Automatic annotation (TrEMBL):
PANTHER family in the record: RIBONUCLEASE P PROTEIN COMPONENT (PTHR33992:SF1)
Name this protein carries in UniProt: Ribonuclease P protein component
Summary of the function given for this chain in its UniProt record: RNaseP catalyzes the removal of the 5'-leader sequence from pre-tRNA to produce the mature 5'-terminus. It can also cleave other RNA substrates such as 4.5S RNA. The protein component plays an auxiliary but essential role in vivo by binding to the 5'-leader sequence and broadening the substrate specificity of the ribozyme.
Keyword terms, alphabetized: Endonuclease, Hydrolase, Nuclease, RNA-binding, tRNA processing
Catalytic activity: Endonucleolytic cleavage of RNA, removing 5'-extranucleotides from tRNA precursor
EC number in record: 3.1.26.5
InterPro entries: Ribosomal_Su5_D2-typ_SF (IPR020568), Ribsml_uS5_D2-typ_fold_subgr (IPR014721), RNase_P (IPR000100), RNase_P_CS (IPR020539)
Organism: Vagococcus entomophilus
A biological process term (GO) from this entry: tRNA 5'-leader removal
Domain of life: Bacteria
GO cellular component: ribonuclease P complex
Length: 113
């Protein structure tokens, strides 16, 4: 996923989280914020230390980015969102991560289809 799709600044993370529109399943929490004019969605990824050491956290982040890359055609372009991984995510493979991301985004009504 290109860098233009990513949210990196702490202020942007906090702004989205403070909207308090959150949706969750067992493995992920998603905070969303609607933006009207932008060419594509933007996403911030947060994986805390409870998930594991740096190697495991980076693996989870790569899996989340890959899942979002594969789903990007179905995700509405008018949203910015933050994905927070819960500790149970370390037991999932890439396919299961994608299924869980799709599920939580459908709960948030961010998916087009």
């Amino acid at each position: 996923m290109r860098k233009s799709y990513r949210i990196k600044k702490e202020q942007e993370f906090q702004k989205i989280i403070q909207t308090r529109q959150s949706f969750a399943n067992r493995n992920f929490v998603v905070y969303i914020m609607k933006k009207n004019v932008q060419p594509h969605f933007r996403v911030g990824i947060s994986v805390g230390k409870k998930v594991g050491n740096a190697v495991r956290r980076n693996r989870v982040k790569r899996q989340i980015r890959q899942a979002l890359f594969e789903l990007k055609e179905d995700i509405s372009s008018e949203y910015n969102f933050v994905v927070i991984a819960r500790p149970a995510v370390i037991h999932l493979n890439t396919r299961e991560v994608k299924q869980n991301i799709r599920h939580v985004l459908k709960l948030a009504k961010v998916m087009n289809k």
